[in-house]
Amino acid sequence: MVNIRTRLTYQFIALVTLVLLFFSLGVYFFSKLYLEKRFFKRLQDRAVTTTTLLFDLQQTDRTVLRVIDASDKEPLLSENITVYNQKTKQVLFSSNPANTQFHEQFIPQLDSAQQTLYLRKNEYQIVAIHLTSNKASNWVIISGIDQAGREALDDLKKILLVMILVAILLLGVSGWVFADRALAPMSGIIQQVNTIYPANLEKRVEHPNRSDEIGLLVATFNQLLDRIDQALTTQKMFIANVSHELKNPLTKINSQIDVALIQKRNPDVYERTLRSLQEDTRTLTQLTNTLLELANTSIRVDTLPFESVRVDELLWEAKTQVQEWHDTYRINLTFPDFPDEEEALIVSGNRASLKVLLMNLIDNACKFSPTSTANVDFRSKGGRITVSVFNEGPQIPEADLPHVFQPFFRSNSTAQSSKGHGVGLAVVWQVTQIHKGSIQVNSGPKGTTFTFILSCSETF
What we know:
By secondary structure, this protein is an alpha+beta fold. It has 3 domains: about 5-150, PAS domain (Beta-Lactamase); about 215-295, Helix Hairpins (Orthogonal Bundle); about 305-455, Histidine kinase-like ATPase, C-terminal domain (Heat Shock Protein 90, 2-Layer Sandwich). It is about 55% helix and about 20% strand. The protein has helices spanning about 5-55, 60-70, 100-105, 145-195, 215-260, 265-300, 310-325, 350-370, 410-415, 425-435; strands at about 75-85, 90-95, 115-120, 125-135, 135-145, 305-310, 330-335, 345-350, 375-380, 385-390, 440-445, 445-455. The strands form 3 sheets. A 5-stranded antiparallel beta sheet has the order 2-1-5-4-3, with helices on one face. The protein has a 5-stranded mixed beta sheet with strand order 7-9-10-12-11. It has a two-stranded antiparallel sheet with strand order 6-8. Strand 9 and strand 10 form a beta hairpin. It starts with a helix and ends in a 5-residue tail after the last strand. It is found in: Membrane. Pfam families: HAMP (PF00672), HATPase_c (PF02518), HisKA (PF00512).
């Protein structure tokens, strides 16, 4: 594959060569037009001189014409002069009688309405002038070859061709040098990037000019490094927290089994041990399922199937599911200002993930409520569906509110009042972002409210 330096050089050569060719063709074309115009003017002057000799001076001796040729510094090549009478249809005079037929072929093209005609035939240039005097109507036809003009055009062609070839050579060298200078900062950037490893990911690429295109590229690359650094930090924290959360119930389960196997015990002790193991296993299963939900919503954002979902029905399903898992939970659903139109209850989204979101909000509210009660308020107004979940649990400090949706974060005010892993609200946040909605939390002395808002007219 050709590198950028070589491609830039080729493109520079091609572009400037095209400009030079266009310029050279223009010079050659306009030079040709100028030489033709100048030669036609010479032929016209020659015709006027001949007319004066033949009619004004009444001289037809070719000796006079030879005198005129001798006085001409640039004699015409293959000159031929013919005088044709339009009324008698006869040739009155020809400087080259043997070649009279050459001019006679142009006689049908003569038009009395025009004073002068300019014609071309092969390498000949022809001028025909219409003269009228003493009721006579004559045409003076003169032709010749512009040998000097042809030689000048040939020389010009050779000069332009040589200059273009020399220019292409110079363009190749200069283009290579300038491309090298233009790409020199890229070499430094490559060297800096090669020194960045996961161990020193905080290092950033430096570039002196931050306003040019390379500077913008460096800024974009540094932003990518920031995101990678943040992702790796989150991953490390995630792995550390998962290891810690999984280690506790596994250690507890293993310890209880070891104690139960030390000696034989009565059935009641075994029953209590099994119930404790069942509780620990349920906790471990719930944590595993929550982690899987968080992983699925994080990884499969673009592959989640969307459909029309009626939120009020989904809310009843979430309430029923949570109460099946926890029969001590009380969930109060209220639907003030219930809309008459069914369209006001439907959103476009992923049914399974939205159900997980609602279940996590309800479970979280019941878990931290002293009475295990969650008050859920459903509203649909102005094309937006709002679900508010309130519990009378302890107030979350204002400093902790911005972090409640981070994975494994637990506020000190709630960590001791109830068991948890700090993953449920992270799933809520991720699902909200997927559905382009919003989630807010307000906490006060009387309790905490989570408000989920989603547009019912949004098309995904």
